[in-house]
From TrEMBL:
PANTHER family tied to this protein: O-SUCCINYLBENZOATE SYNTHASE (PTHR48073:SF2), O-SUCCINYLBENZOATE SYNTHASE-RELATED (PTHR48073)
HAMAP family: MenC_1 (MF_00470)
Cofactor: a divalent metal cation
One Pfam family per UniProt: MR_MLE_C
UniProt protein name: o-succinylbenzoate synthase
Basic and acidic residues: compositionally biased ranges: 344-355
High-level lineage: Archaea, Methanobacteriati, Methanobacteriota, Stenosarchaea group, Halobacteria
Record-stated family: Belongs to the mandelate racemase/muconate lactonizing enzyme family. MenC type 1 subfamily.
Keyword Isomerase set for record: yes
Positions of the UniProt region annotated as Disordered: 319-355
Gene3D superfamilies with a match to the protein in the record: Enolase-like C-terminal domain, Enolase-like, N-terminal domain
EC code(s) of this entry: 4.2.1.113
Catalytic activity reported: (1R,6R)-6-hydroxy-2-succinyl-cyclohexa-2,4-diene-1-carboxylate = 2-succinylbenzoate + H2O
Amino acid sequence: MDAERREFALDLAAPLETASGTIEQREGIALRIAEDGAVGVGEATPLPGWTESPATCRERLAAATTYLDDGDPAAALDAVDESPAARHAVHLALADLRARQDGVPLYRYLGSVGRVERVPVNATIGVGSPDDAAAAARGAVEQGFQCLKLKVGAGTVEEAVERVETVREALPRGIALRADANGSWDREQAGEALRAFADSGVEYVEQPLAIDDLEGHADLRQQSAGVGVALDESLRTASIDDVLDAGAADVVVLKPMVLGGLDRARRIAIRARREGVAPVVTTTVDAVVARTGAVHFAASIPGVDPCGLATAERLADDLAPDPAPITEGDAVVPQGDGLGTRGPWEHTVDGENRR
Ligand SMILES: O=C(O)CCC(=O)c1ccccc1C(=O)O
Ligand SMILES: [Mg+2]
């Protein structure tokens, strides 16, 4: 077994705001494992505030690479056990390698039984004026999206409500609307927002309250008049059992980079589903390797709800061509062996290898 790492940095064409700041660039490390002529690729794209720091990620991945070179994948996974982005890379590279060796697409390797052609996705509408958001929403619907997610955490609750109402009025009937508050409200504000969103037919709100307020989210579900509560940031610190025991979520938003790999994310998805909580797959706006891994993960969940996987266009550049393009509001699932990515080894960013 032979492992290699390459660092990359990709600018966002359209910055994305989250509670921990605006994301303008994604830096990460691509990992390539070769064994007897077969190759697997993985990606660690840490996001400060969401995963381990880039420095820790780099250090853990270097340690794992040594074990991979020694032909000891179990030791490599151990070395990244507490670094989710680094573990994501190691697990994905190994899974891609095994799936290619087995001659099956990654989603089959992950445990799906039938053929899955497409995964429904949501368009992601960032911050901006209500009119800007409405224009972006109309554009997304023209491209075929049936589900839109609006960022609503910046500004006041009144502004969030106005944003949602303006978008809803601009849309044809039947388009699903979600909102993401990124943990920026207190309990009173969240109650007010969800009551108002009910009139606009909002399906659910991601992370209305602070990351550690499971009890508040459980209370909110009781008084939310039909608007669901989704947890995203909370899953960084709370286990799925904590979430289920607290009755804190209708939906869990699963980011494999944050959860430490597709295997861990998939276990959470299955457990959640069994308890009637819907899994939704998304990314931290990752490069093509991790994004495609997330598409396969979503495809491995039968009849998955629309996922937050339409983020390729947010990147000004990428590591390799996209094997899972979005058409008519769906990601097309690659059916070749493994991930189905070509590269990224042949594609270095800005022509430089920053390893
Ligand atoms: O889910 C989506 O539609 C896109 C991804 C997204 O919103 C996101 C991207 C990076 C970091 C955080 C988040 C988030 O869900 O809060
Ligand atoms: Mg979110």
